[in-house]
Amino acid sequence: GSLPVDLRRVADGSAESPALVDDNGSEEDYSYEEFCHANPRYLQPGGEQLAVSELISDGNVVYAEALWDHVTMDDQELAFKAGEVIQVLEASNKDWWWGRNEDKEAWLPASFVRGYIRQCRKHTGMFTPAQLSTIFGNIEDIYKFQRKFLKDLEKLYNKEEPHLSEIGSCFLQHQEGFAIYSEYCNNHPGACLELSNLMKQSKYRHFFEACRLLQQMIDIAIDGFLLTPVQKICKYPLQLAELLKYTTQDHSDYNNIKAAYEAMKNVACLINERKRRLESIDKIARWQVSIVNWEGQDILGKSSELIHSGELTKISKQGKSQQRTFFLFDHQLVFCKKDLLRRDMLYYKGRMDMDEMEVVDVEDGKDKDFNISVKNAFKIVNNATEEVHLFCGKKPGDKKKWLEACTNERRRVQEDKEMGMEISENQKKQAMQNARKSRHGKMKGVSYSRCPVPPLLQSLHPIHQRHITVPTSIPQQQVFALAEPKRKPSLFWHTFNKLTPFKK
């Protein structure tokens, strides 16, 4: 229920510590190196209090951030609200510290003060607001939501007789709130990239490590902690499935737990799908910039997923046939011509708006409209203009795949509408900018034709017909393919590359 990264807020020096802001690499290297690595005692139980105490006795100014409200009638105790900043003046006792806020100096319970993000905010010389937004995303919204969820969950837990607890309704009541995890998960690859860039400088490595040591957190780098919400949202369906397995059907909570399991499975699915779709738009943007002589609107204007691709012969009314490579996206079909010498180079030749089209199967033999003999053919008819396009595949299997893909395209468009699957203009713009940047680098023409196309899946709930990482029956084991945080500070690129559609 608490924040995955809630490290003790520490500041050595004044509100803007020169030791943290100085970029010349001398002063900060020395003080942090000494502080983090010279004293293994800080890693022992009670090390956090020892570290704070020693920092104070060395003349440093140490701040803490209140994690909870502390209400007291005792004059000797400091009352404060969650989020308030307190200067710690004395920390020799592990339970009670002496501190000062705007109102007065008094004792405060040591267990009530923690924090992390505001520590970074205070150091404006180290972090711009944009960097903080990239690294932490909406983690504070998740924290607020989880605190409320936890309170409601605890109310439903029966301490005396745990087996009589009825917690299913809590998940159902908060079902919509869990959608905020989607933004966090989508933001996560960008957070890893931003962090990996910062971690090239020793002052950032030392800063995050100092925060971790002071809070006595387990030996996982910050990227590991930032992965926690991604894992958390995927574990709920697994935990509920496990609970359901041990709940008898006559238990008063059985139906609610079953409904909660389905609900959380859908939440995890939608988040997975949004994440996958974001990876997909990066790939599509890179594909588009590799096409020679592209015309008209960007593909991302209407589409966010490649459904099928392959070669077909396009036949005109005059009987002229052209070999083209076709790419079926949601809402549109794009066709290109291969370069005669460089087969991986494609030239843009046109597109069709699938929202206006109907796909019609054509029997082998003489075709009435076109007055020619055809094999493995199908037609695409424009409902508005009644214009007819004729296509032939090389093999009967090709035609079957294209017909299935066209059905699939319509179904996906419908599901996206029902699921509220939208990608913001900003995300599309960003994808195109990134693709153009990498194109200016050393990118060759990228062919999408070898790109694996998602399998056609019927008979599942629409939301589960996509990127299946959620079991459709109650799982016996963990099935989510999300990485656990590494024990040692991990290489950010390792995590990031797994989330990147192509490497540069």
What is the H-and-E element order? HHHEEEEHHHHHHHHEEEEEEEEEHHH
Low-confidence stretches: 1-37, 442-504
Report the C-alpha radius of gyration, rounded: 29 Å
Percentage of helical residues? 40-55%
pLDDT averaged residue by residue: 75
The number of helical segments is: 14
Largest sheet: 7 strands, antiparallel
Category from helices, strands and their pairing: alpha+beta
Molecular shape: elongated
User: β content, as a range?
Assistant: 15-25%
Ends apart, CA distance between termini: 39 Å
Spatial sequence of strands, sheet with the most strands: 8-7-6-5-13-12-9
Protein name: Spermatosis associated 13
Domain SH3: 59-118
GO molecular function: guanyl-nucleotide exchange factor activity
Keywords: Cytoplasm, Guanine-nucleotide releasing factor, SH3 domain
Compile the SSE list and pairings.
Layout: H1 18-21, H2 27-37, H3 47-57, E1 62-65, E2 85-90, E3 96-100, E4 105-109, H4 117-122, H5 129-136, H6 139-156, H7 168-173, H8 180-198, H9 202-214, H10 222-245, H11 254-290, E5 306-315, E6 321-329, E7 332-338, E8 346-353, E9 357-361, E10 365-367, E11 372-374, E12 377-382, E13 388-392, H12 396-419, H13 425-440, H14 492-499
Antiparallel strand pairs: 1-2, 2-3, 3-4, 5-6, 5-13, 6-7, 7-8, 9-12, 10-11, 12-13
Organism: Naja naja
GO cellular component, one term: filopodium
GO molecular function, one term: guanyl-nucleotide exchange factor activity
